[in-house]
Specification:
Number of helices: 8
Mean pLDDT: 87
Structural class: alpha/beta
Bound molecules: adenosine-5'-triphosphate, magnesium ion
Length: 293
């Protein structure tokens, strides 16, 4: 299926708007405040796939939590579909970095929970749940408990639980980090297809530079903490994109650009070290070990 390049998202309505967002955490033990985000500005449009990359601890998950309504900013404004965020709403689904599954519930019941929480259980629920369990490749594990699954499988349950609610906005925090390379490819393709059909915007945090270039319409690179937008890179590669797209010179140029921006956020890594690592092709691909940044 030829999916149109999603250039048209640019003329669409704004789904998420962050203006001057700052987040501070109270560190009561140290009697101090940690500034996680400062003057963070970002717009995400309907149908857009926005990837966020940045050093560990720079505030990426914090930003996602602000959009989800789980963390309140100390300053600035955050709107989803034009409405100021005051708390979690059913129009936003989050796939958390740490799975957040219920250990006492089976896979099927964990996925079903997405709908239960919203009071949307009806005669279609069973089929919907089965559909999304199949989509993430967990058919046959419906009655397993999270402790009986691998990390990657748990992450896929989290994804199914978010997708089953068919949200207007999908917030994903390193959803494929614990998934093996082959499954990641499949899930990336599935996710691309889902987005192409539903048109729902996605904010997708990843440490995988190749993953970001493969999936995103734009990549927001975040600075070291306190996190701010360092640069936003447009990814105007044709879709559908696949593993083969990674051989394109345009792909490689984008990958290099992202890496340059990221490495400048790691001052402790000397330039010489970066050069050696680049020459050895350490960042040439992030398939496999979940590598990246
Ligand atoms: N609930 C909290 N209380 C206090 N500090 C927090 C809390 N949550 C996050 N932080 C701090 O805020 C900063 C940003 O954390 P965050 O989890 O947003 O980073 P991240 O960019 O998602 O990192 P990673 O890539 O490692 O997941 C970190 O220094 C972290 O220690
Ligand atoms: Mg995080």
């Amino acid at each position: 299926m030829q999916v149109p390049a999603q250039q048209d998202y640019r003329s669409r309505a704004i789904a998420v708007e962050a203006r001057g967002v700052s987040v501070e955490y109270d560190l009561s033990r140290e009697k101090s405040t940690l500034i996680a985000l400062e003057d963070f500005n970002l717009e995400v449009r309907e149908g857009e796939f926005l990837a966020i990359v940045g050093p560990s601890g720079c505030g990426k998950s914090t930003f996602l939590n602000v959009v989800a309504g789980l963390v309140e900013p100390a300053a600035g404004e955050i709107k989803v579909y034009g409405k100021p965020v005051t708390g979690p709403e059913p129009d936003r689904a989050v796939v958390f970095q740490d799975y957040a599954l219920m250990p006492w519930r089976t896979v099927e019941k964990n996925v079903r929970f997405g709908l239960e929480m919203q009071g949307r259980v009806d005669s279609t629920t069973k089929d919907k749940v089965a559909h999304y369990i199949k989509m993430v490749g967990l058919s046959g594990f419906e009655n397993s408990y999270p402790r009986e699954l691998s990390g990657g499988m748990r992450q896929r349950v989290g994804l199914a639980r978010a997708l089953v609610t068919e949200p207007r906005l999908l917030l994903m925090d390193e959803p494929f980090a614990a998934v093996d390379a082959m499954t990641r490819e499949i899930m990336q393709e599935e996710l691309t297809k889902i987005v192409a059909t539903t048109g729902q915007p996605i904010i997708f945090i990843t440490h995988g530079v190749d993953e970001a270039v493969t999936l995103a319409d734009r990549i927001a690179v975040v600075t070291n903490r306190p996190g701010r937008i360092k640069e936003i890179i447009e990814v105007d590669l044709p879709r559908p994109r696949s593993r083969a797209s990674r051989q394109l010179p345009e792909f490689q140029a984008l990958r290099e650009r992202v890496w340059q921006l990221l490495s400048s956020e790691h001052p402790e890594r000397s330039e010489a070290e970066m050069a050696v690592s680049a020459a050895a092709g350490h960042h040439a691909t992030d398939a496999g070990s979940g590598g990246g940044i």
